[in-house]
Hints:
By secondary structure, this protein is of the alpha+beta class. The protein contains 3 helices and 4 strands.
Amino acid sequence: MSSCIVGVVNKNDLEKYDIYAGAGYQSLAGFEVEVMVAESPEVLEGNFPGSTLIVMKFKGDGDALKWFQSEAYQTAIPIRHASADTAFMIHFTTA
């Protein structure tokens, strides 16, 4: 099994968000993760509530939560909160 993190981000301070993005990517060190999407989506219908969609697939079923709760990422979260409105979700896959 694997696990995924999905984030919807509406950036409101690009300079601060760049600092967060650097810290966020550094916090992934040591995890087997594929960043599947980290960009503005092409909306086909309706209104997307953000400027960026993030989808990260972690190899282990508990790895997404371990990363999210890691000290390195917890340090980055306040920067994200100061620079964007966000929602982050976790999904555990069966395949």
